[in-house]
Amino acid sequence: MQSKPEHLYEYAVVRFVPRVEREEFLNVGLIMMCKRRRWIKFEYLINPQRFGAFDGPITIEEVEKHLQAFLNVARGDKSTYELGGLPVEERFRWLTAVRSSCIQTSRPHPGLTQDLDLTFSRLFDELVK
To answer: How far separated are the first and last CA of the chain, in Å rounded?
Structure first.
């Protein structure tokens, strides 16, 4: 009996950084990509209690607006962003590029899996929830 093929993937944790100079952050999302399968997924979750623990000028609504833009790019929404028409690996690279804004990502991390959706769910639960 043959096992399912393993897929190489990359993921990055999306973080809310209320004040860059304080180096504090809150994990609010996960983006994962598999180039071979042309698969990309992004989800976010903002915990209001954790968010409230940070002293910053940015509201949850503003953060959600930024995260929604990430979601639109990841989904390939061509009506809103030209980036949506790029291949998944280019969208992933754009979303995980180093930036000094209130929404940042970790460096991408690689892995192998037989089930991309299951791995995404596990990582999201471990790193964001």
So the answer is: 36
